[in-house]
Amino acid sequence: ASQRERGRDLLAQVGLAHAENKRPAQLSGGMQQLVAIARAMALDPPLVLADEPTGNLDQASSAEVFALMRRMHAERGTTFVIVTHDSRLAARCDRLVELVDGQIDRDEPVPPLDQRAA
Predict the structure, then answer these.
(1) Rounded distance between C-alpha atoms, residue 110 and residue 94, angstroms
(2) Number of domains in the chain
(3) What are the C-alpha distances in Å from 115 to residues 88, 95, 110, 111, 112?
(4) Given this model, what pLDDT does residue 118 score?
(5) Whole-number Å distance between alpha carbons of 110 and 84
(6) Owning domain of residue 68
(7) Distance (Å, rounded) from C-alpha 66 to C-alpha 61?
(8) What secondary structure does DSSP assign to 2-29, as a single string?
(9) What's 37's domain CATH number?
(10) What is the pTM of this model?
(11) Which of 32, 67, 76, 101 has a 20 to 30 A CA-CA distance from 48?
């Protein structure tokens, strides 16, 4: 497929096929993050480093971006390493590595929601 076709396909996968001809300033923050994920997926990388992927987004947009990363992981096997200060986002990940003063302070799996203490 041509690069243009690949770009269109990726935009469709992130739910933004309708925004193909829009400029970044015409997109919401959440839409810009979805485009960034599509761009990161262009070469089918095994690993994506996501630095504060939901940092400037409202809760609904944050949930949409996180759901997309989960879907890309399930469908493509892409691993996402998410750097965040958002404890709610971190709690939704599979593994938590916490750094304190540049040192690993904690490295453990995050239990599934249905197995967490109330």
Answers:
(1) 5
(2) 1
(3) 16, 15, 10, 6, 5
(4) 57
(5) 15
(6) 3-115
(7) 9
(8) -HHHHHHHHHHHTT-GGGTT--GGGS-H
(9) 3.40.50.300
(10) 0.79
(11) 101
pLDDT of residue 15: 86
Q: Chain centroid to CA 38: how far?
A: 10
CA distances, 9 to each of 15, 35, 60, 108 (Å): 10, 12, 24, 36
For the record, the structure tokens of 107 come out as 């490295």
Burial 83-98, CB ≥16 within 10 A → b, else e = ebebeebbeebeeeee
The tokens describing 25, both together, are: 């300033």
> 43-97 pLDDT, tens per residue?
889 999 999 988 888 888 888 889 988 998 999 999 999 999 998 899 899 999 9
CA pair distance 92, 88, nearest whole angstrom: 7
Gap between the Cα atoms of 31 and 33, Å rounded: 5
Total H helices, total E strands in the chain: 4, 4
**CA–CA separation, 37 vs 30, rounded Å?**
11
